Amino acid sequence: TEQRTALLCLTIQMLCRIPNVSALPKAVKRRVYALKRLQVQSAHIEAKFYEEVHELERKYAGLYQPIFDKRREVVSGAVEPTDEECEWHSEGEEEELAEDLKKKAALEEKKEESAPADDPKGIPEFWLTIFKHVDMLGEMLQEHDEPILKHLQDIKVKFSEPGQPMSFTLEFHFEPNSYFSNAVLTKVYKMKSEPDPVDPFSFEGPEIVDCEGCKIDWHKGKDVTVKTIKKKQKHKGRGTVRTITKEVPQDSFFNFFNPDEDLDFTLATDFEIGHFFRERIIPRAVLYFTGEALEDDESNLSFVFQDLDEEGEEEDEGDLDPTVSIQT
Amino acid sequence: TEQRTALLCLTIQMLCRIPNVSALPKAVKRRVYALKRLQVQSAHIEAKFYEEVHELERKYAGLYQPIFDKRREVVSGAVEPTDEECEWHSEGEEEELAEDLKKKAALEEKKEESAPADDPKGIPEFWLTIFKHVDMLGEMLQEHDEPILKHLQDIKVKFSEPGQPMSFTLEFHFEPNSYFSNAVLTKVYKMKSEPDPVDPFSFEGPEIVDCEGCKIDWHKGKDVTVKTIKKKQKHKGRGTVRTITKEVPQDSFFNFFNPDEDLDFTLATDFEIGHFFRERIIPRAVLYFTGEALEDDESNLSFVFQDLDEEGEEEDEGDLDPTVSIQT
Are A191 and A209 in contact (CB under 8 A)? Predict the structure, then answer.
């Protein structure tokens, strides 16, 4: 291993032109160490900076809240927005929408208008639709989760109080339903915003270090995170066969609230999902509902463009503006 | 083009399961528009948030300044750090450094100790070394730039005053030299932190929108951003030949201060470089000098590991800790 390390040292130094600081004159090396000590001081100031940014996020959470409350009321149907509140000029996209598509839409609208179910309450399946649009969440979503998530009415983020250890909590608010009795399911993400004493230079701001779910009080027989399997057992001596039932874990989004026993995802993915809820989905939910926020998700779009290319499209890809088609 | 757009619409909707919002019942569509209006309000609050973060950065710039001043003094040799200020425990890396490497270093050190040039002033070529280590800067660096950059003594970032349009200025401080008379070369990056009225949802925080360099007062014949070429011209009538000299632009890092006439890089690269100076190089210069900050630069390291793999190394790559060899 020592020889190996030595080889690596040499290779890296040669190939990357990284200076061998130990080859510097002693007096210069000393000064470099002095700069490294200053750099550690810097890292601690940076940690304070991020604490203040967290404070600022708390403050702004309060400023966003009236908007999010209004969103929840519109989604649930508790409030009907006024005409003025619904005015939306979709810049030129009506014109760009091809005629046949428009006609089709008009037809469908007409059909729907004549149906009694034409005016459902609020925006049905708002959050479930978002789950389906976002790859990272879609992967966790199972068919048996969908009827439950239709009852999801809001997702909120709450920041830890000043002076408390840094954390944020995701709150999933459900309307009364036949699956569980909780009104809110929570997941707390604990964060750390201080340089690691052993490796202070790796500090890049707050990091999620731990998370904690919550107990879901499932109604009898409704827990989708387990399934009951039947197992036949043969008595060794007598040769008689009996059937026992056994509960085994099953894939479900709701394992998200029980991270210890998660089946589908590692802790790293879990942290990534928590971060994504906090930074993207909660602040801009409607854009994930309409698909506008998915523009960046290149894996989706490049897949589409690939198909067209193979069919012999000749125009330059640079001319295509996918926003045209997925904006509403 | 209309047909093409229609095709794209359909394809994207089918493949990505993005809802055709225009196919939603009218009443629901209205509510979605209401949410989109709320989303625009959100974007404007977010813009204010980023302005406050900018304020916070200004405040912290003041807190970092004494550390950066000390760094400048150590680098230039104006101040010799005390023994206490130079104490540095490099966790176990001495032990891990293979014996032969250590001996080699010891030999070199001895050689250097006997030489009179053994104690140069400060940390020679501190900033030039950083330029050489960072790919993005190394690409701009020409041989004729190197002797000039040996005179670079500090790089600072200054944030715009509150109430002023958001911007930051990079200041390159030079010791008196034979190339130009400026003591400081500057580059201002102008930023915008407000949602675009035409596309408010694309807002993701402050963006660099413009930059401005400075005039370098080159001493006669020292301007490395131009070269003189000789050109022979033949008189069309008389057939006589004359030689004229002409100044033409030449690649140089110093074109960075004259972005209008830049040769090497697009505005996007220029913005990226400005951002990198501000966010990475200025706050953690010593780590770019020693190479520790380059750990993330995977293109460098994966290249090294690739080589070892090809030579038949069998151990799992996961066991390798490249930090061992490039820390000092």
Answer: yes
Q: Is the ipTM of this complex over 0.90?
A: no
B46–A301 C-beta distance less than 8 A: no
Torsion of CA A7, A9, A10, A12, to 10 degrees: 110
Q: Return all residues near A306 (Cβ < 8 A) that are at least 6 apart.
A: none
Burial class (CB in 10 A: 0-12, 13-18, 19+), A39: buried
> Cα(B168)–Cα(B173) distance, rounded to whole angstroms?
16
Tell me, yes or no, if A306 comes closer than 8 A to chain B by beta carbon.
Answer: no
pLDDT in tens, B280-317: 999 999 999 999 988 654 433 333 333 333 333 333 33
A292 exposed, middle or buried (CB, 10 Å; 0-12, 13-18, 19+)? Answer: buried
Two structure tokens written together for B146: 């190197």
Q: How far is A94 from chain B (nearest CA, A)?
A: 10
Closest CA to B52 of A208, A54, A162: A54
Total count of residues recorded for chain A = 328
CA dihedral B59, B64, B69, B71 (to 10 degrees): -160
How far apart CA B242 and CA B247 sit, in angstroms, is 17
Alpha-carbon distance of A328 to A291, in angstroms, equals 9
Integer Cα distance of A2 and B145 in angstroms: 39
| DSSP state letters, A250-285 | ---GGGGG-GGG-SS--HHHHHHHHHHIIIIITTTH
User: Per the structure block, which two tokens stand in for A92?
Assistant: 């030129």
Q: Does B280 touch chain A (CB under 8 A)?
A: no
Q: Which residue has the tokens 């890089």?
A: B265
Whole-angstrom distance, CA of residue B282 vs CA of residue B294: 14
Other C-beta atoms closer than 10 Å to the C-beta of A177 total 16
The CA distance from A258 to the nearest CA of chain B, in Å, is 29
What's the whole-number mean pLDDT along residues B10-39? 77
**By CB neighbour count within 10 A (0-12 exposed, 13-18 middle, 19+ buried), where does A315 fall?**
exposed
* Nearest residue of chain A to residue B78 (CA atoms): A31
Give CA–CA dist A89/A288, Å, rounded.
Answer: 19
Model confidence over A254-311: pLDDT tens digits?
999 986 655 445 778 889 999 999 999 999 999 999 999 886 544 333 333 333 333 3
Q: Rounded to the nearest 5°, which phi and psi values hold at B311?
A: -80, 5
The burial of A92, by beta-carbon neighbours within 10 Å (0-12 exposed, 13-18 middle, 19 or more buried), is given as exposed
Model-level pTM greater than 0.90?
A: no
The 10s digit of each residue's pLDDT in A112-156 is 444 445 678 999 999 999 999 999 999 999 999 999 999 999 999
Q: Which domains does chain A have, with CATH numbers?
A: 26-80+122-221+254-306 (3.30.1120.90)
**Do residue B5 and residue A120 have CB atoms under 8 angstroms apart?**
no
Q: How is B165-210 classified by DSSP, letter by letter?
A: PPEEEEEEEE-S-SSBS-SEEEEEEEEE-S--TT-GGG--S-EEEE
CB atoms within 10 A of CB B48: 13
Interface of A with B in 308-327 (CB under 8 A): 308, 315, 320, 322, 324-326
How sure is the predictor about B323, in pLDDT bands with cuts at 50, 70 and 90?
A: very low
